[in-house]
Amino acid sequence: MFNRIPPVVKNLIIINIIMFVATLAIGDFMYEKLALFYFESPLFRPYQLLTHMFMHGNFVHILFNMYTLYMFGAVLENVWGGKKFLLYYFVTGIGAALLHSGVLYLQASGLESAVTAGNMIAYEHLRILYSTPTVGASGAIYGLLLAYGMLFPNNVMGLVFPPVMMKAKYFVLIFGAIELLLGLTGRNSGVAHFAHLGGMIFGFFLILYWKKHNRMYY
């Protein structure tokens, strides 16, 4: 089965697995250098906009992302070809990082104002914001989900939990709405919900651009 996976998806999975094993072996050094930090953090480096996509926090994180990459990425690579698929993958992944960083900027600006007013609790939150890494291919994965929903809107998909069937377009809308709700309410704050939305938003506009210029399939 692994031999039937198209080459770009296969190599992305292999690279992610290698990076995950290296992170388990090396530890914090990998996170400090390759995870994505807020752009005003002393730990930030521009290349992290790309490298964070190959880092994962734990086994469940990488398992979910790689399984979804296999499920949707293989279909999209077969439709688009390797070069177009890889371009889409990186545009959505980097776009996710940019939107996430923009949200962090808004949060940091509010905290800095509070710190200036003498709020020491805000200082602690600001310190955490500067030192917290963001990892994972989830932004690009959500971009793939969006693309599948746009290209095959009426394909029926099944969820394991809850055990329901629905068309891909509704699946995408529900997941997008959940991420927006969780991002705005701050629930499940350890997850970069706006990064997920960023992948979907950048993917949406890239697909619209390709459709407008008749470049969807070549």
Automatic annotation (TrEMBL):
SMART domains: DUF1751 (SM01160). The chain crosses the membrane at residues 12-31, 51-73, 85-108, 128-148, 168-185, 191-210. The keyword DNA repair does not apply. SUPFAM superfamilies: Rhomboid-like. Its main location: membrane. One of its GO terms (biological process) is proteolysis. GO terms for molecular function: serine-type endopeptidase activity. It is found in: Membrane. It comes from the Bacteria. It is a multi-pass membrane protein. GO terms for cellular component: membrane. InterPro entries: Peptidase_S54_rhomboid_dom, Rhomboid-like_sf, Rhomboid_protease_S54. Keywords: Hydrolase, Membrane, Protease, Transmembrane, Transmembrane helix. Residues 46-209 form the Peptidase S54 rhomboid domain. Belongs to the peptidase S54 family. This is Rhomboid family intramembrane serine protease. It comes from Candidatus Egerieousia excrementavium.
